[in-house]
Amino acid sequence: MDVAVLGAAGDVGRAICAELIERRVLGAHSRLQLVGRAGGLSARAVHGLRVDLIDAHDEHAPIIDVALRPEDVVADVVVMAAGRTIPTAAGSGVDRDALASTNLPIFDEYAAALAEYGSGHEVVIVVTNPVELGVAAMSRRLNRHRVIGMGAWLDTLRFRREIAWSLGIRRQRVSGFVAGQHGEGVVPLWSTVRLRGLDSDDRAAFVRRLRGDRDLNIFSEEIAAARAAISRMAGDDITDAFDYVDGLPPGIRTIVRPFLTHQSGAKTAFGTARATVELVDTVLDGREIVVAGQVALEGEISLGGQPFTGVLGVPIVVGPDGWTRVLLDDLAPDEDAYLGEVAARIGAFTDRWMLE
C-alpha cells in the first residue's frame, strides 16, 4: 500500500512522514511519495527530506520517492498537507478567508489531477486548513466517501485527553467524540462520553462533575472570552497563559489549548501528525473503525429535525474504501442546537468560496 503526502516539506508534512515510518505503518515494499511543488522551495526540500528520512530509518523505511506535479501523484492514500498555515505570532487570530484565498486553488488543482489521472480508489485525508473547505472542494470532483477531513479526529483526541487530564487517568480509558468545525467551531458531544471501567450511573456522575451546570448555549461566548484572555497574556508571559488554560473546563480547554500552543511558536505539528497517521493506518489496515472526521453529507444526519446536506465533522465508520456511514445517536438538545449553528456557519463559508 502506498501513501502520498502533499506538502511533505512543511512542518506538518515532515512530521507526518516521520510518524508513518516510525510507527511502521508502511512496510518495506510500500511506497511513500513526497510531493513538492515544481518551481517552489519545496521542490528542493523534498529531495533533501527523502535522504534525511532514509538516513534516519534505513532499517525499516519504505520505498521513498519524490513527485513535483499534481498529475504524478499516485497512492492508495493521499494526505493533503500543502498550502498556507495559521500564523504563530502571539495575539494573531485564525483568518479563514486568508487561508481559503491561498489554499482553495491548491485543493482544486490536486482534486482535478486525481480525478483525471488517479485510479478512482484513492482515499484523500485533508489536513490543510480550512479543512471543511478542502473537503468540500475535493468532494466536488472525487467520490465524497473517499474524502475525509482529519480535524474532527484531532479535536476528538484532544477532547478525550482533556477529560482524562481532569480525572487523572490515561486517555485510553476515555471514549467520546466532538463534531462540527475544526478549531473554534468544535462541538463537544458530552452525550457520547464513556469511561472504561465505569457503569452508566458512575459515568454520568463524572460528566456532571466535569460540566457543572454549564451547557452549550453560551459555549461560543466562553471560547471567545478565553481566547481574548489568552491573547492578552501570551504576549507578556506564556507560562501565565498556560496556567490560565489549565484552570478552564475541559470542553473549553479542548479548543483554546491548541490555540495557545500554536501561538507559543511551537505549533501543533506532532499532534496533527499523530491523528493523521492514525487515520491513514485505519484505511490501510483493512478493518472498519469508528473515528471522527469532516465529510460531505447528503442527508445522512438530521439537525433540528431536518436532513442536513453539507460538510460537517461527525463520528464516522472508516475502512479501506473511505467512510461508509455516520454514527450520530440522538443528541442532547443543546448539542443539536449548537451543532446546527456551527453547520450553518460552515455552509455559509464554504458556499461563499465555492461559488466565487
UniProtKB/TrEMBL annotation:
Catalytic site: H182
Cross-referenced SUPFAM superfamilies: LDH C-terminal domain-like, NAD(P)-binding Rossmann-fold domains
Keywords carried by this UniProt record: NAD, Oxidoreductase
Keyword flag NAD: yes
Matches recorded under InterPro entries: L-lactate/malate_DH, Lactate/malate_DH_N, Lactate_DH/Glyco_Ohase_4_C, NAD(P)-bd_dom_sf
GO-annotated biological processes: lactate metabolic process
Gene Ontology MF annotations: L-lactate dehydrogenase (NAD+) activity
Keyword Oxidoreductase: yes
Name of the protein: Lactate/malate dehydrogenase N-terminal domain-containing protein
Native organism taxonomy: Bacteria, Bacillati, Actinomycetota, Actinomycetes, Micrococcales
